[in-house]
Amino acid sequence: MSAIEFDRPAFKIEDLWTDSRWRGVTIQVIAIAGLFAFLAFIVNNTINNLESLGVETGYGFLSDPSSYDINQTLIEYDSRSSHGRAALVGLLNTALVAFCGIIAATILGFTVGVLRLSGNWLISRIMYCYVEFTRNVPLLLQILLWHGIVVHSLPRPKDAHEPLTGIFLSNRGFSLPSPVFEEGSSFILFALIVAIVGCVVFTRYAKRVQEQTGKIYPVITINLGMIVILPLIAYFLAGMPISLDWPALRGFNFAGGVTVTPEFVALWFALSVYTASFISENVRAGIQAISHGQTEAAYALGLRPNWTMRLVILPQALRVIIPPLISQYLNLTKNSSLAIAVGYMDIVATIGGISLNQTGRALECMSIVLTIYLSFSLFISLIMNWYNKRVALVER
Amino acid sequence: MTDTTQSYAPGTHPDLPPPSYSRGPIKWMRDNLFSSPTNTVLTLLGAYLLYLAIPPFLDWFIFDSVFDAGSRNECWEKGDGACWSVVVVRFSQLVYGFYPEHLRWRVDTAFILLFVALGPILYDKVPFRRYLIGFSLIYPVVAFFLLWGGMGLEHVESSKFGGFMLTVLIGVTGIGASLPLGILLALGRRSDLLVLKVICICFIEFIRGVPLITLLFVASTLLNYFLPPGTYFDLLLRVLIMVTLFAAAYLAEVIRGGLQAIPKGQFEAAMAQGLSYWKMMGLVVLPQAMKISIPGIVNTFIGLYKDTTLVVIIGLLDPLGLSQSILADSKWQGLSTEIYIFIAIFFFLSCFGMSGYSIYLENKLHTGHKR
């Protein structure tokens, strides 16, 4: 046996373009060269511009005093604090509104999604109208609308609405009683942690027992009981260390308690209502994606309707619902940057707004904001990929 | 009944109408509103909520509203409802912004021609479609000269643009320019060429990872650093570029989903026919992939259209920006709800129309292969 020798034609220069083996390489080399030329152009321009403007660069300004106030702070902050601290306050404000928004939007979205599938014509029509109206109107407009309603339609603090004792709604925001933690509060926190660990252990135990013997414990009731009762016992044992600070009218505004600013209320309402309509569509699509045969099969096995929903339909629907749900959470977080329109001091408004204007460090400030959002969304997509891999159907 | 006594031979009894509870509106209500105790409660609750919400809203919206008043206080004397006079008085500003009054016919012409240009693209039963498509292709140039001036028309600064005209301008340009770019990005992301693939992935993930506002800030504050000294870039043009890039990244992901859904056999069959890469994509793969991704594409377009409102934050005068200046006028202070609802209605109609068209298109392209 002799090896077959192919007569390869000699390499010609036009092969770079006409031969498909070489064309790929050529295109990629051109692409890399173009990319580097572009980057070099931008970097070169930036350096030249910065030099000609005589602007200092570097992140040292972050430790300079910020000399501006922020109307809502979760951590200690005043105008003598640094720009870095202002950025942190902004970041926490973003996190706060995103967190509250995600919880409200999830609850509202799931409720609306399920109700839209309801056999009740009136209810499903109402939900349809809600979804269409909120989805088709820009979020920024909704934020401004809510803000206008809170600021213009609610009374002045003097004649504030009081729907529940100690809760005041006025155009300066919502005043709520706030808890005051005294000595011994950490004991309650400890009890809560113990209760949560206990729940996890008990759930695992109950599952093992059920798999081995078929005996079913009322897991949810017992867990809820543990989480409520243990901290409660700790509260009384420690001598009731938590008291409430009630808001009261002093002069033209409320003092004491905690005041939720109208900006936060407007942003939170608008984000939740807007995102909920998208979530509800995901939920509806997820439930509809489960074939009716699953329901029929579950009924044929004698499962009750609510068990069918809980044990057969929902676990399968969640596989479809959760990926778009998480990207809605991401959207909500990114949309919270619209806060700047009503003056809620989030990360864009603090470091990317006032700090930027005061120091003129546009490059540094914007890079901080972009990096924060980017790392957050990459983190979320990592979680999503992990989840998708975990729940993917294992097919042979 | 008289005929209870009448007897019939077997099989000759005339058909009786169905009982009243199993036909007509009563049957429908029993099925759809009162089918179970829970449903009955829900229906009554829903009806009660509607009763609480709708009449006061209609009173405010129409019956007690005021259309002809010179100021806020005059409005409030005339009625308790909405003060639509603010919209009536400032209507032309809300539509055209500060576009010079004697040149506004150019905006109107461009707007009407937009529909002439869109018609043959959106519907295939338009008469003379072949020639009109030619017009659609040159429409951007025509619109550019009409809006900005040139070729004998008086020049208008883009800082004078505003109102709904600006919204439509940014929206339509963004939609038109982002679709081809999105397709290219999606193809690049699915490409075998590693370098192209990595570049596309980085671009898409970067754009999708940050809010549009920050990109607009970059466009308005940072772009000067990146360009050679002395280059002047119109703010509107920067916004158009950023909005287009932003929408293109989202479109690319939607179209990638469509590409992934095309079975490998389609690619292989096309290659076996000897089609080149672009012919394979253009004639075989993309038509199918685009059809699958229509809902996602239209959703992205609707998102882009709604996102045009964000330009107010970097100082362009879209309807929201104009409403801020109207509300700052002491004559109309505090009427934010009226103006915002008016703008909301405009956006609702446009976006609802777009989603309606997407449903029409899906049905038209539905070839019976859907499971």
Structural write-up:
- The complex is a heterodimer of chains A (396) and B (371).
- With 396 residues, chain A is an alpha+beta fold.
- Chain A has 12 helices and 8 strands.
- Chain A has a domain at 83-158 and 262-391: Orthogonal Bundle (MetI-like fold), CATH 1.10.3720.10.
- In chain A, strands 1-2-3-8 form a 4-stranded antiparallel β-sheet. In chain A, strands 4-5 form a two-stranded antiparallel ribbon.
- The radius of gyration of chain A is 29 Å and the shape is globular.
- Chain B has 2 domains: 20-85, no CATH class; 92-99 and 156-365, MetI-like fold (Orthogonal Bundle).
- At the A-B interface, helix 2, helix 4, helix 5, helix 11 and helix 12 of A face helix 2, helix 9, helix 10, helix 14 and helix 16 of B.
Structural class, from helix and strand content of chain B? Answer: mainly alpha
Widest sheet: strand ordering of chain A: 1-2-3-8
Number of helices of chain B: 16
The CATH topology name of the largest domain in chain B reads MetI-like fold
Fold topology:
The complex is a heterodimer of chains A (396) and B (371).
Chain A lengths: L14 H4 L1 H34 L29 H34 L4 H15 L3 H15 L7 E4 L2 E4 L2 E4 L1 E4 L3 H29 L5 H19 L4 E4 L2 E3 L2 E3 L2 E3 L1 H28 L2 H9 L4 H31 L11 H13 L2 H30 L5
Antiparallel strand pairs in A: 1-2, 2-3, 3-8, 4-5, 6-7
Chain B lengths: L23 H9 L4 H27 L8 H7 L6 H5 L1 H6 L7 H19 L6 H20 L14 H27 L4 H16 L2 H15 L8 H26 L3 H9 L4 H16 L1 H14 L11 H10 L7 H30 L6
Helix pairs in contact in B: 6-7, 8-9, 8-11, 8-14, 8-15, 9-11, 10-11, 11-13, 11-14, 12-13, 14-16, 15-16
Quick synopsis:
The complex is a heterodimer of chains A (396) and B (371). Chain A has 396 residues and is an alpha+beta fold. Helix content of chain A is 66%, strand content 7%.
